Amino acid sequence: MKKMKNYKTILKNYLIKMRATHKTRLLDYLKNYGSVTSLEAIRDLGNTRLSDTIFRLKKDGYNIDTDMVKVKTRFKKANGDSVFTDVARYSLSITDRTNLGYDPNTWK
């Protein structure tokens, strides 16, 4: 019985280590798409706390650039014009893109 317990413990630890995390999913997303906004993170990654994940990646030493971009909202002004708001768009710095072997020519 002890042997089976050790096997289960080893398997559990292996699965925990191999499981994708918000950080690994975000890095893969940045590799494939170049940048991400909160809405994209929620929709594509299931990450509702993008700023926390960015904070942790920065703490781990990644250089992440933040640009503010205007996006159209679903609301309209009284005269019918669209309403825009500013959101953060995060991307890996040029240095980290190169160090991690990311090819910007393959970004979608």
Characterization of the model:
With 108 residues, this protein is an alpha+beta fold. The chain has a single domain, classed as Orthogonal Bundle (Arc Repressor Mutant, subunit A), CATH 1.10.10. The chain contains five helices and three strands; from the N terminus they run ααβααββα. It has a three-stranded antiparallel beta sheet with strand order 1-3-2. The longest helix is centred in the N-terminal third of the chain and has 17 residues.
Write the SSE topology.
Layout: H1 2-18, H2 22-33, E1 35-36, H3 38-45, H4 50-59, E2 64-76, E3 82-92, H5 94-99
Antiparallel strand pairs: 1-3, 2-3
Per DSSP E runs of 2 or more residues, the count of β-strands stands at 3
Largest sheet: 3 strands, antiparallel
What is the CA-atom radius of gyration, in angstroms?
19 Å
Q: CATH class, anyone?
A: Mainly Alpha
Overall pLDDT confidence:
81
Helix proportion:
40-55%
Summarize the model shown.
The chain has 5 helices and 3 strands, in the order ααβααββα.
Main attributes of the structure:
108 residues; alpha+beta; Arc Repressor Mutant, subunit A; 3-stranded antiparallel beta sheet; 5 helices
